[in-house]
Specification:
Chain A: This is ABC transporter domain-containing protein. Chain A: One of its GO terms (molecular function) is ATP binding. Chain A: Keywords: ATP-binding, Nucleotide-binding, Transport. Chain A: It comes from Actinophytocola xinjiangensis. Chain B: It is a multi-pass membrane protein. The complex is a heterodimer of chains A (265) and B (284). Chain A has two domains: 177 residues, P-loop containing nucleotide triphosphate hydrolases (Rossmann fold), CATH 3.40.50; 65 residues, no CATH class. Helices cover 37% and strands 25% of the residues of chain A. Chain A contains eight helices and nine strands. In chain A, the strands form two sheets. Chain A has a six-stranded mixed beta sheet, sandwiched between helices. In chain A, helix 2 runs parallel beside helix 4 and helix 3 crosses helix 4. Chain A is globular and about 50 Å long. Chain A starts with 12 loop residues before the first strand and ends with a helix. With 284 residues, chain B is an all-alpha fold. Chain B has one domain: MetI-like fold, CATH 1.10.3720. In chain B, helix 8 runs antiparallel to helix 10, helix 10 packs parallel to helix 11 and helix 11 packs antiparallel against helix 12. Classes of the chains: A alpha/beta (265), B mainly alpha (284). The complex binds adenosine-5'-diphosphate and magnesium ion. The site of adenosine-5'-diphosphate has 13 residues of chain A, from strand 2 and helix 1.
Chain lengths: 265, 284
C-alpha cells in the first residue's frame, strides 16, 4: 500500500538487529521475552515499535541502549559523530530524579558528556523552553504534574542531541488532550532535528501519526510480525492525517493484525 | 401504584435541604494555617508544662511521696545549686563530649563502610549475616570488655557510643543504598555517567532520606548508652550524677540529671531533623 521503499542498503542502516533473543531467568521462572528479532533501523528515520503489552518492546529498547545484554544474536550500531552521544533514552516511568531541580535533571547528563556547567545550563534552558517548561527550572519534580515530569524526561534525552533517540512509551501516562499536544510537539521537534528515533508505543494512532515505519511485534515471545511503511508526507499535519482515508485503512489493517496476536496468546 | 409514586415524589413536611459552602478553613486558608500552627506549638510546649504543674500540685497536696518524687520547684532550686557549684556544667560537658565524639566517629565510619557494602551485592552477601549478628548484641554488654582493653579513661566510653551508632547507621545505610531503584541508576548508565558520578549524583541522594533516619535514631541511642556507661564506669557526666545522687540519697539531684539527659536527647533529635531538612529539600 505504501511507497514500499527501497531495500535499505548498508550505509542507510543505523541499527541492525540480527536474530536477537532475550531470556530472563529468575529463581524458578524462565521467561523468553524476545525470540530472534530481525530489524533494521534506517538512518534518520522515525521507527515505531508497536505491540501488545508484555511483548518485549521495553526489553528490545533496553538492549539497544546497552542496559540489558542480549541472550543471543547481535546488534550493529553505527556511530557517525564522535562529538555526539550515540543514544539517549526516555524511560517508560519517567525516571526523573526527585532530588534534583528540573534544571539539574537536564544538566546532569550533559555534564557527564563533557559539557561545561555554563554551557550545559544554556542548553538545558533551551530544551526546557522547547518543551514549555520555562519558569519551572528551579522546581523539584515532585511539585509539578505527571505530564510536566514526562516533558522533563524528554528534554533530558533531547538535550544530549543523540544520534539515536530511544523512547519507551513516553506519552502513555498522559491524558488524551495532553497526549495530542505532545505528539504534535514531538513531531515538530523531530522534523527540525532529524535524528534517528525508535519510539515504543501501544497506540496505533500514535504510531501512524509519528512513524516513518511501524514495526508490529507479536506477543510473547516477542517477534517482529511485520514492518509497515507509513505513506504520509512530511511535514505532517496531525489533523489532516487523522482525517485521511489512508489513516483509517492502515489503522484497521494494523488493528486486525494485533487482534490476531491477542487471540493467539 | 401511581398514588404511591406521587407520594414518594412529593416533598414531605420533614424534608430539609442541604447546602454545601466553603468551610471556615477554605475561606481563610492562611489564617487557618497560622492558627493551626500556633495551636500545635502551644500544645507542644503546653502539655509538658501542664504535666509539671500537675506534679507540683500533687506533691504540694501531699498525694505524691515527696521523698521519692520531689516537687518540680524543689528540683529547680537543686538545679540552681548544682549550677552554682560548677558540678552541673562539668557533668553536661563530660556527657556531651562523649556523645558527640562517639557519634561522629561511629556515624562517619558507618556511612563510608555502609555505602561501600550497600553498592556491592557480593559484599552484602559476605557481610550482612555477620553485621546482623553483631547488631543485636546489646552494646552495653560489651562495656566490660572495652574497659578491660582500654581502661577506665575516656576511650572506652567514646568507643562504646561509637559502636552503638556504628551498627544502627551501618544497617540503615546498607539498606538504603541497596534499595536505590535501578530506574534511577539506569538513567546514569544510559548517559554513560562514570561510576563515581552515579554514586554521587544518584545513589547518594536516593539513599539519603533513609540514611538520615538511621542517623537520627542513632543519636537517641547514643544518649541512652552513655548514661549506662557513666553509671558504672565514670566519675563525671550526667549518668554519674544520677547514680551518685542515689548513693548520696539526694533524689532532687537525681531528677536534675534525668531531666538534663532527656533534654540532650531532645536537642540532638531536633538538630538532626534540621540537618534532614537542609540536606533533603526535595522531601518537603
Ligand atoms: N528483568 C526482568 N526479569 C524477568 N522478566 C522480565 C524482566 N523484564 C521483562 N521481563 C518479562 O519480559 C516480557 C517482556 O517485557 P517488556 O519488554 O517489559 O514488555 P513490553 O515493554 O512490551 O510491555 C514480560 O513478560 C516481562 O514479564
Ligand atoms: Mg514496556
Amino acid at each position: 500500500m505504501a511507497e514500499g521503499g527501497p531495500v535499505a542498503n548498508d550505509d542507510q542502516v543505523k541499527v541492525s538487529v540480527q536474530a536477537v533473543g532475550k531470556v530472563f531467568t529468575s529463581k524458578a521462572r524462565r521467561v523468553e521475552a524476545l525470540a530472534a528479532i530481525d530489524l533494521d533501523v534506517r538512518d534518520g528515520e522515525f521507527l515505531c515499535l508497536l505491540g501488545p503489552s508484555g511483548c518485549g518492546k521495553t526489553t528490545l529498547l533496553r538492549i539497544m541502549a546497552e542496559l540489558e545484554s542480549p541472550s543471543s544474536g547481535r546488534i550493529e550500531m553505527r556511530h557517525d559523530d564522535p562529538d555526539r552521544p550515540l543514544s539517549s533514552v526516555v524511560f517508560q516511568d519517567y525516571s526523573v530524579f526527585p532530588w534534583k531541580t528540573i534544571m539539574d535533571n537536564v544538566v546532569f547528563p550533559l555534564l557527564q558528556n563533557g559539557y561545561r556547567r555554563r554551557e550545559a545550563r544554556e542548553v538545558a534552558r533551551h530544551w526546557l523552553g522547547q518543551l514549555d517548561l520555562a519558569g519551572f527550572e528551579k522546581s523539584f519534580p515532585d511539585t509539578v504534574s505527571g505530564g510536566m515530569k514526562q516533558r522533563v524526561a524528554i528534554a533530558r534525552a533531547l538535550a544530549l542531541r543523540p544520534e539515536l533517540l530511544l523512547m519507551d512509551e513516553p506519552l502513555a501516562a498522559l491524558d488524551a488532550q495532553l497526549r495530542l499536544l505532545l505528539q504534535e510537539k514531538l513531531l515538530d521537534l523531530w522534523q527540525h532535528n532529524q535524528n534517528t528515533v525508535v519510539f515504543v508505543t501501544h497506540s496505533i494512532d500514535e504510531a501512524l501519526l509519528l512513524g516513518d515505519r511501524i514495526a508490529v511485534m507479536s506477543a510473547r515471545p516477542g517477534r517482529i510480525d511485520t514492518v509497515i511503511d507509513v505513506p504520509f508526507a512530511r511535514p505532517r499535519d496531525p489533523d489532516e492525517i487523522r482525517a485521511s482515508p489512508d489513516f483509517a485503512a492502515l489503522r484497521d489493517d494494523i488493528w486486525h493484525r494485533l487482534r490476531r496476536e491477542l487471540q493467539v496468546s | 401504584m401511581t398514588a404511591d409514586l406521587s407520594q414518594t415524589r412529593a416533598p414531605s413536611a420533614a424534608a430539609t435541604s442541604k447546602v454545601i459552602v466553603p468551610s471556615a478553613r477554605e475561606r481563610d486558608p492562611r489564617g487557618y494555617a497560622r492558627r493551626r500552627r500556633l495551636l500545635e506549638r502551644g500544645l507542644a510546649v503546653g502539655v509538658p508544662i501542664a504535666l509539671i504543674a500537675l506534679w507540683q500540685g500533687l506533691a504540694s497536696a501531699g498525694v505524691a511521696e515527696s521523698q521519692y518524687f520531689p516537687p518540680p520547684l524543689e528540683i529547680a532550686s537543686s538545679w540552681g545549686e548544682l549550677v552554682s557549684q560548677g558540678v552541673y556544667f562539668e557533668s553536661v560537658l563530660a556527657s556531651v563530649q562523649r556523645i558527640a565524639l562517639g557519634y561522629l566517629f561511629g556515624t562517619l565510619a558507618a556511612l563510608v563502610i555502609g555505602f561501600a557494602i550497600g553498592s556491592s551485592k557480593l559484599a552484602r552477601s559476605a557481610l550482612e549475616p555477620t553485621i546482623a549478628a553483631l547488631y543485636t548484641v546489646p552494646k552495653l554488654a560489651v562495656l566490660p570488655l572495652l574497659l578491660l582493653v582500654f581502661g577506665l579513661g575516656e576511650t572506652s566510653k567514646i568507643l562504646l557510643v561509637a559502636l552503638t551508632c556504628f551498627f544502627v547507621v551501618l544497617i540503615n545505610t546498607i539498606d538504603s543504598v541497596a534499595g536505590v531503584s535501578t530506574k534511577y541508576t539506569d538513567v546514569g548508565r544510559s548517559c554513560k555517567a562514570s561510576r563515581w558520578a552515579v554514586l554521587w549524583h544518584i545513589t547518594l541522594p536516593a539513599a539519603l532520606p533513609q540514611t538520615l533516619t538511621g542517623m537520627r535514631i542513632a543519636s537517641g541511642m547514643a544518649v541512652i548508652v552513655i548514661v549506662g556507661a557513666e553509671f558504672v564506669a565514670a566519675d563525671t557526666g550526667l549518668g554519674f550524677l544520677v547514680w551518685n545522687s542515689w548513693n548520696l540519697g539526694v533524689p532532687e539531684y537525681m531528677f536534675v540529671g534525668i531531666v538534663s539527659i532527656s533534654l540532650i536527647g531532645v536537642i540532638a533529635t531536633a538538630l538532626l531533623r534540621l540537618v534532614e531538612r537542609l540536606l533533603t529539600p526535595w522531601n518537603r
